[in-house]
Amino acid sequence: MSSASAEDDGDVPADTSSGPSGKSSISSVVFHKLPPSETLFLESTARIQKDSLNSFMEFQVWDFPGQIDIFDNPNFTFDMDAIFGEIGALIWVIDAQDDYLEAVARLNSTILHLHRSYPHINIEVFIHKVDGLSDDYRLDIQRDVTIRIQDELSDQGVENAPVNFHLTSIYNHSIFEAFSKVIQKLIPRLGQLEAMLTNLCRTCRFEKAYLFDVNTKIYIATDSTPEDMASYEICSDYVDVIIDFTEVYGSWPRSEQWREKLEGEPWAQPLDEQVACEWAESGMVLADARRPIMLREVDRFLALVAIMKEGSYEKMPQINMNVDVVVKGLTEFFEITKPKGVVGGAEALASPGLVQG
Amino acid sequence: MSASAAAHAQLKKVKKQKVLLMGKSGSGKSSMRSIIFSNYLARTPAACEGATIDIDLSHVKFLGNLTLNLWDCGGQEAFMENYLSQQRAHVFSNVGVLIYVFDIESRDVERDLATYVSIISALVQYSREAKIFVLIHKMDLIQPMTREEVFDHRAALVRRKTAEAVAIVHKQKPEYLPQSANAQTPSSSTPSASTDLSPNLQLFATSIWDQSLYKAWASIIHDLVPNLSVIETQLASLGLAIDADEILLFERTSFLVVSKWTSAEGERNPYGDRFERMSNILKSWKHTCSKYTGTPRNAEQFSDFEYKMGATFSMFATKFTTNTYILVCMPPGEARFNSAKLNVAAARPWFKFLDGPVVSAQAAGAVAGAGYLGEGAVGTPES
User: Fold this and answer.
1) What is the pLDDT of residues A61-120, one digit of tens each?
2) Which domains does chain B have, with CATH numbers?
3) Residues on chain A touching B338 (C-beta within 8 angstroms)
4) Is A246 within 8 Å of B309 when comparing Cβ atoms?
5) Binning pLDDT at 50, 70 and 90, where does residue A304 land?
6) How far apart are CA B5 and CA A74, in angstroms?
7) Considering only residues 228 to 247 of chain A, which have any Cβ-Cβ distance to chain B shorter than 8 Å?
8) Integer Cα distance of A94 and A89 in angstroms
9) Cα(B108)–Cα(A278) distance, rounded to whole angstroms?
10) pTM, rounded to two decimals
């Protein structure tokens, strides 16, 4: 058995291979918020499924049925350029709980095909369904798969092919983390984004800051401190809490009388002017060490989430000012990088001036 | 504040409430208990290890000096027979609430119902005032399309069986039934017996995988909390004073909604299931926090929360009294938000005496002095 799936970017994605390795489950969980427990009821994918990801960048995820071999299909010839011409990354899903030798062999031939004609495509291998496997065993599998692929590639004279490996499961945050890494590689001028977040963390004494795509909970950038799964989890769950509250209390229209009463005496101001910030902002103080977590909406798709150090809660007003500046910077960043191929935009960004404190 | 003094006069001393949790072995009683009272997540396998042997007694400290005496009764047949024979008086006397759990997937419905009927007979015999909550559990295993139908069907069956059980006890020993039922139920008519008993029987469809469990338990708890009407009145006056749209009062460990108040505008909220949903959201958030900080699951995980969604709405949650958290949802506006926070803090003493050990009348009098900031202070925009 084997499998693979693919996906993503700039506009397109692709993939291939056979059998239920969990490709459709992945896209349902990540892009359609299906609870992992319900992926059992998914039917097998019979044709290429395209999902658009409406976000700060346009992404499309193409889910390829595993049964079709697109490189060697006697009945049908695929238009390779249409499929791979604009794709940014190919995600290949391997079922870690199954015999993966055939999948690895097919992956190898796929990489060889792609490397010849489309060398810019990142190959991302998800070693999937690792929940339930022991840590040691997971690493063994990863090592085994890595060696098999690299050996084969170097036998064929291919060096430095852009192949990356991720251990994933839909039952925890690892699948979101892996997707985050895949997407980040496709973002133009990611370094600039990271520098802004690092700067913010240093100035405001944040422990960790993430820029989230709210709909998918993929993070598209973080500061330069070491990766830390635990802080990603809590930030991502915080985004969930906010989304749920917003749905329950913020998604239905209030009556006219309600608005009139609130804008009347003694307030005598339109509601829009009574609020300090037109975007969502939120904070929560954890009981342990009184560490605050904050969230600030950047635009319709993105939110900045940060874990602060102990005792920062008292400095919230100053922190909010700094966050405002960074959010403005981020907005400009996306303004500039939006049309593809604008070069030199980043200089105009410089670094936003932060209030030191 | 005469209101609070009057409120205090209504306080009643509450004794322990005996709660029986019963149902067939493997129907999910203990895992449900762990999720509600010990903050396990549904997916944590530790929440449901092994079968409960005999009766697992636990005391759950709850709001307002209430202690729930939870009797988790192992459901294997041998135990069941034992409860109904040797331990009959011991188990079924002084019961406040019986929670009976049916597994919807069970293959032997007839037998389940027969056991249920014997339990009900014993209950009516020893504690005829007890409230009965029947949870039709594991509903997640039924296809979503047919869930309602399956539940309605099973619920009707359970109602009928309950009525029959009561009628039989009534026939044999008429003195066991409440006077009113006696008067209205002529000799053998079972259907009218069912209407007599219905105020004491409530049915819920539940699953540990969604908020339905919180809905059922919130109703169970709701009837047990002492001084609830006082709490509700006070919550309403607080809500009006701060212009809130909705106020929810959560019990601290289980995060069940114990009391709520909603303004006329808030009533327009299309999400009827929002209360159990809030419990569910906050409970899993607590779990995330405990995982992150490495503190015990039952420890307090957050103290303050605020969320302002532009010009749509604002909300905040904070630790309120010893055993409660309060969540306030209100219209947008910085000044309004800040004064509401201050007023909620000022209202704490109003609620404090309703929670925790019953205090003396003098202490309550002292509390009455600390009122809200005046209406004027609330109403002045800071510009």
Assistant:
1) 777 776 666 666 555 566 667 677 777 888 888 888 888 888 888 888 888 888 888 888
2) 15-223 (3.40.50.300), 227-367 (3.30.450.190)
3) none
4) yes
5) very high
6) 88
7) 230-231, 233-234, 237-238, 240-242, 244-247
8) 16
9) 58
10) 0.80
